[in-house]
């Protein structure tokens, strides 16, 4: 079985930059314009000036994230906003036709009331020729509808095909790739990241805490999961449960939590510090920090500011995914 490349502990250089994940804006404790204004004020104090959202965020009220960012004058207050083209279902079918792209971008611009920094194709659209998609995006880029192009959820083969068309036709190339990446999910290190490095495409990592799984809450169970996405009946946790709810993963999480206790480091802190200072991410890459409540933003930022992990901890976190992968 192929192993992950070895991460360099305490590696020097500039860590990835931070984006705030706008998926929760318009929902829960970020449901109103006042909530979002307070959130943006907090982000400003933490010097986080970049927000990642999408046309379908939040899933409970699609488009409201963009709308509230616009109503809160996020752009006028110095925030950079990235967004994603609307997908009508999770197959991506029909989402990247010329008409669908044009409609989605026009709607997003009317909502956010500022420039789109990075416009992402949220996922591939197998029903639409990639040449049509790229031609439409190139035209919008020429019209200054967005600054840079990004792609998300594309396979290595799909990225290669897209780049070949861009090169052949002279279309705008993607500058960013967004995908899941954390101490448990490191498949991107195999083939995708080497390809992106070769093409000078930066990686934007979402779910650095594996949807909260790396906090250890789900592994510890009991009252810890009440009110979280891992509580029984909460559909938001289904994807992460399906991915991480298995005996090898829980076993390794328990070992990590025990090792961290003498260091006074929480599991979520270790996961965040690992992804910023010990992972395959580098300067120019980014990490999306999501939150369901304001105090999570402050806590995560404080943990990240502590810098690199003790060598023993960094090695343990780094080895965890390899141990789990060998057993699955």
Largest sheet: 8 strands, parallel, barrel
Total strand segments: 8
Q: Compute the number of structural domains.
A: 1
Global geometry? globular
What gap, in angstroms, lies between the N and C termini? 11 Å
Task: Write down the CATH class.
Answer: Alpha Beta
Task: Give the neighbour order of strands across the main sheet.
Answer: 1-2-3-4-5-6-7-8
Q: Supply the helix-strand structural class.
A: alpha/beta
Strand content: 5-15%
Q: Percent range for helical residues?
A: 40-55%
Could you report the average pLDDT, rounded to the nearest whole number? 93
| Tally of helical runs | 12
Secondary-structure element pattern, one letter each:
EHEHEHEHEHEHEHHHHEHH
Going by CATH, the homologous superfamily would be NADP-dependent oxidoreductase domain
Describe the overall structure:
By secondary structure, the protein is an alpha/beta fold. It has a single domain (17-327), classed as NADP-dependent oxidoreductase domain (TIM Barrel), CATH 3.20.20.100. The protein is built from 12 helices and 8 strands. It has helices at residues 33-45, 64-71, 98-112, 130-142, 156-169, 192-198, 217-220, 238-244, 247-260, 267-277, 294-304, 311-327; strands at residues 17-21, 50-52, 80-84, 116-121, 146-152, 174-180, 202-206, 286-289. It has an 8-stranded parallel barrel with strand order 1-2-3-4-5-6-7-8. Helix 2 packs parallel to helix 3 (98-112) and helix 9 runs antiparallel to helix 12 (311-327). The radius of gyration is 20 Å and the shape is globular. The termini are close together.
Topology:
Elements: E1 17-21, H1 33-45, E2 50-52, H2 64-71, E3 80-84, H3 98-112, E4 116-121, H4 130-142, E5 146-152, H5 156-169, E6 174-180, H6 192-198, E7 202-206, H7 217-220, H8 238-244, H9 247-260, H10 267-277, E8 286-289, H11 294-304, H12 311-327
Parallel strand pairs: 1-2, 1-8, 2-3, 3-4, 4-5, 5-6, 6-7, 7-8
Helix pairs in contact: 2-3, 9-12
